[in-house]
Write a structure and sequence with these properties.
By secondary structure, the chain is an all-alpha fold. It has one domain (23-126): Flagellar protein FliS (Four Helix Bundle (Hemerythrin (Met), subunit A), Up-down Bundle). Helices cover 86% and strands 0% of the residues. It has five helices and no strands. It has helices at 3-21, 24-47, 51-70, 79-101, 104-126. Helix 2 runs antiparallel to helix 5 (104-126) and helix 3 (51-70) packs antiparallel against helix 4 (79-101).
């Protein structure tokens, strides 16, 4: 068996085990981490002029942010949740703009916004 393929399979199984045992709070943290990773991948691909990889990574980041939006409790929307929903929509729009214009500063902006949301979410976990 190809060692790289074996490593990928092992990582996939490890990730599946981690998500199956994770609390809902941890799953949101993992989504945010994944979004930040995809934005970083998009930035690296853009710097290397790998347009296709940039688009794939941005598409995955948009999908993750969409997943975060879907996780919001729409039946009990508070003003705070509405602001987060609006922020997620803004991030999605900005990522689309970054993809079209190949703009690193927009990727940095969205990464900073998602990092701020994640830090708040992480602080809740510590309480």
């Amino acid at each position: 068996m190809n060692p790289m393929l074996a490593l990928r399979q092992y990582q996939k199984i490890g990730a599946q085990a981690q998500t199956s045992e994770a609390s809902p709070h941890r799953l949101v943290q993992m989504l945010m981490e994944g979004g930040l990773d995809r934005i970083a991948q998009a930035k690296g691909a853009l710097q290397r002029n790998e347009v296709a990889n940039k688009g794939i990574a941005i598409g995955k980041a948009i999908g993750i942010i969409g997943g975060l939006r879907e996780g919001l409790d729409r039946d009990n929307m508070t003003p705070e949740l509405e602001r987060i929903d609006t922020l997620y929509l803004y991030m999605t729009r900005r990522l689309t703009e970054a993809n079209i214009s190949n703009d690193l500063t927009i990727l940095d902006e969205v990464s900073g916004l998602l990092t701020t949301v994640k830090e708040g979410w992480d602080a809740v976990a510590q309480q």
